[in-house]
Amino acid sequence: MAWVTAGVVRQALSIERHEAIAVSSPMSVRRRFTPGIRAKVLLASSALLLIPWIGYAFVVQMEGFLYDGQVRMLADNARAVATLVQERAKRVSEKREIHEIAPELTRPIELDGLVEDWIAQGADVRGYGGDRIAELHGPWTADSLSFSHAVGRYGDYIYAFFDVTDDRVVYCAPESATVCDHVRISVKRMGGELERLILTARGPGAVAVAPVSGRTTGSISRSIEGAWRERSRGYTVELRLPAAGLEQLAFAVADVDEPAATTVNTVIVTEERGIQTGTTLEVTDDISTVLDAMARANLRIWLVDRDGVVVRRAGTIQPAATSGGMTKAVKLAVEPLESLLGSWRPQKFLDPLAQASRLETAEVAAALAGTPASRTYERTSGVTRINAASHPISIGGEIAGAVLVEQSTQSITRLREIALERLLLATLAAFVCGALILIFYVSRVSNRLRELRDEAEQAIDSVGRVRGLVTGSNAADEIGDLSRSYSAMLQRLAQYTDYLENLARRLNHELRTPIAVVRSSLDNLRSETLPQGTSVYLDRAETGLNRLSAILSRMSEAARLEEMMRRSDRETFDLNAVVSGCVEGYRVAYAPLALSYSGPGRPVHLTGVPDLIAQMLDKLVENAAEYAAAHTTVEVILEEHNVDVILRVRNQGQPLPDAMKSGLFDSMVSMRPTGSGIPHLGLGLYIVKLIAGFHQGAASAANCENPSGVEITVRLARYVSDPA
User: Fold this and answer.
1) Domain count of the chain?
2) Which ranges in 323-409 belong to alpha helices (H)?
3) How many angstroms separate the first and last alpha carbons of the chain?
4) Residues 485, 487, 491, 492: what is their CA dihedral angle, to the nearest 10 degrees?
5) CB 473: neighbour CB atoms within 10 A?
6) Residues 478-522: pLDDT tens digits?
7) CA 166: distance to chain centroid?
8) Containing H/E element for 45?
9) Domain check: are 81 and 131 in the same one?
10) What is the CATH number of the domain that holds 235?
11) Which candidate in 81, 164, 225, 477 could, as Cys together with 147 as Cys, close a disulfide (CB 3.0–4.6 Å)?
12) pTM of full prediction above 0.90
């Protein structure tokens, strides 16, 4: 019967212990759970960021289609203008203009790259800059490229000098002979073809002569000598070439800003010298009228003769001063996308042929060779693109010139900015609406979950008893199902807990009568004359009966404690007086064991139940006295702090095993060896834990050193105002 009763109590208190653990966990669950829903919703909503990315990629792709369409349109315009000119233009045969190729020098020039020989002979040194630009594919300043030039003749040779201002000199690499800083020469001898040569250098010293790609060179290329000399802000070049039979001569200087560049940045040309012959175009008034009518904003038409000299120019590609752009707010939103996608967006406009009197671009050269061509100027960072298309003009079966049509991409850029601005506004509106809907939905779900959490926390008290039920929601969603499940679970748990509590009380009450009957029967048997040897069995029966009575007493003690904690009213009392009085009584009860008390020496006010404190101290001293070594002292120490008090009970003896430190205050836990003869349910320190929790405190145990022993510490709140 005793082990049955102990098993029931063990089950009841074990359930109570697990319930108390479950009560302490909702706070940590709440901290993990509530932000988790919001984080997941935000993570799912981040997929909406694909909308502006896809829209931006679509706008960029459409921009590319518009660029291609513009190039095709320019090619059609160039072909139409060429057809018009071919029908109406007049051909002037063998135009001849005689210019002096070079003035005479008094003595030969030493090819050392120095200007002193030229100054000493009073040479005509001319400056060339922005007004003679033939090609421009990036920003230009006078410091980036400009030069002074002089030419002269002595005997059978013509000498030329160039003093070039260049902020960065780029020499030719061994594998490249043209994509570097260089000097161009256009030369024609009597009865020969026009030769185009390039003079380069791999460093200061002698120059190298190379033909222009696609053209053959005559013997003059092998007769040219020169010297390249570097100076602080540029370089100088001196040349010498044979003058015999020379008919035409012109020079140009090309600048490259980066060693890895694929094209030149700027080309500045000099005037042509000598006898110039060839076929030219005479533009009639009706052609000029048509060209002026076709040219419009951002569209420019060029007519050049067979040598690339500009005959007529109509229109402009310079954007209007009032051309707008994206607003500042839109730019701040779009620029990160452009940086992420590596997209190009112009910041300023640069006209590469604004002052050109001669066109030597690749598409013009192709048209003069009889092949229509088109080209998009390189995407220089932050510079507006310019698309161009050329078409040859053929008169009488001979190429007489070419048409070049150019147009900037300002209009496409503006359409792109408008599309991006509208996309951004539409996306922003969609995001705002979506965010408001998500915030409303998540807030509603979070509030419902928070209400359910609060009800679940309040449904179970600090000792694990069900004191209320969760209100089952009528909502037909998952949260409603969860609340109804909580309500049903708590209801069943309350019924089962009530059954276990009443069962322990009933067993305690019902077992008292059989125990009394057995005890009286044993007493009557002892008064009778019994056979020899039966007294041993009577002693065993009486010992078992005493053990059963002790178990029932401890069960009654636990039940009374729980009842007391439910019904007791807290009061303010002097804890120092209670503890000191109890210790005086323990000295008599536990003699000859020595006890000592150390307190503050003044009243220590505490809000609580004095009887519970005394009962807690009984368990602490009983536990310490039982495990104390012989001839040692059990110390009771009371410490006073601002918001709490600390009660310590310390003994000397065997320390606690590491495995027992964490579960020492749980129910049904005891370190006493089995068969010690004293019934223990392992409730002593568990009662200490319950009383400490009732006073909003906590209990802990630790081993001591020097001397070895165990110290149990109980921390109690000084002022407690919540109901018991």
Assistant:
1) 3
2) 328-341, 362-368
3) 35
4) 10
5) 18
6) 888 888 888 888 888 888 877 776 776 677 767 777 888 887 888
7) 43
8) helix 26-45
9) no
10) 2.60.40.1190
11) 164
12) no
